[in-house]
Write a structure and sequence with these properties.
With 308 residues, the protein is α/β, with parallel strands linked by helices. It is built from seven helices and ten strands. Strands 1-2-3-5-4-6-7-8-9-10 form a ten-stranded mixed β-sheet, with helices on both faces.
Length: 308
């Protein structure tokens, strides 16, 4: 069964915070042919491209990351963005198992849904996750559940990762140990944080990325090589699409402390992801090193750090 798709034209631009030189396409595979429903964002130009598996946050839809995914794909990456659940409880164990299953599906399954001239380079495979998806990504890479995967990931990215609602009350499987540099991942890691993630929207709701279980704690446990960026004045959900539809989409504007608009934070997240991958998967570190304290970044950088 042929997939449905839509295209976006991309203007050539070497700025990692802008759309890249590749025209991109969104592919929606038949759900019966994939382990979980998923979206694929791919360049259209002939070539072989690294692959990024991107995991959504708690009670969010994978479609909420479309603009971010198109931006990253336009710089020469294939993104696989699964929908891990519709409704779920606090235990993320099943999500870790789902991602392992999706990873094992990639070698035979992914090529069937790519344009004929596009090839996936699964020797350059990165795993990224936002919020609870970041926790799931770290749990999988730390092998908390002893999953069996055919492929080996080459890089890990936590986008404002959260390990539960409070220190000591992490949801299963627990990731944080609170022992500095205890994550022996044997791969490069990047952690991206939001300056407003630990700030409550109002007294009725907890912070979306509480201090004690957020990006700062994840980075503190990383080993070399690792890098860390925190965007000032932007919130936990500001990297999502400008418009997120449905009840869940409307809730994304109400539950977390937000910046003035999503576009700057989304461009920043896309840019640092591209720069990180171009460095550690492609060997060109000039983009990554240029971002540190970069006044031309679309957001003010509250903190940046490198363990190299």
């Amino acid at each position: 069964m042929s997939p449905s798709s839509s295209s976006i034209a991309i203007c050539s631009n070497i700025d990692v915070f802008a759309f890249g030189e590749h025209e991109t396409q969104l592919v929606k595979p038949d759900e019966a042919l994939t382990p979980k429903p998923l979206l694929i964002f791919t360049p259209l130009e002939a070539g072989e491209y690294p692959v990024v598996v991107l995991l959504h946050g708690y009670l969010l839809n994978n479609s909420f990351y479309s603009q971010l995914s198109h931006q990253i794909a336009s710089h020469g990456f294939i993104l696989v963005v699964p929908k891990l659940y519709s409704v779920t409880g606090p235990d993320a164990t099943k999500e870790v198992e789902y991602v392992a299953e999706i990873t094992n599906w990639l070698p035979e399954g992914l090529p069937k849904f790519l344009p004929s001239q596009v090839m996936a380079n699964l020797k350059k495979l990165a795993l990224a996750g936002h919020s609870r998806g970041g926790k799931v990504a770290f749990a999988l890479m730390l092998n908390r559940l002893k999953t069996d995967m055919k492929l080996k990931y080459s890089a890990l990215i936590g986008i404002d990762p959260v390990d539960g609602m409070d220190k000591g009350k992490q949801t299963p499987p627990k990731v944080l140990t609170y022992i500095p540099n205890s994550f022996n991942l044997e791969m490069p890691v990047m952690v991206i944080g939001s300056g407003l993630g630990e700030v409550r929207k109002n007294p009725l709701f907890p912070a979306c990325a509480p201090k004690g279980v957020n990006h700062e704690d994840f980075y503190n446990e990383c080993c070399k090589p690792a890098c860390y960026f925190v965007a000032k004045d932007y919130g936990h959900l500001d990297m999502l699409d400008d418009e997120t539809k449905g009840i869940r989409g409307k809730a994304t504007h109400c539950l977390c402390k937000n910046g003035k608009s999503r576009e700057p934070m989304r461009r920043f997240v896309g840019g640092v992801v591209v720069a990180f991958l171009k460095g550690f998967l492609g060997g060109n570190f000039s983009y990554l090193m240029a971002i540190k304290d970069d006044e031309n970044a679309p957001v003010a950088i509250q903190k940046s750090a490198f363990l190299l």
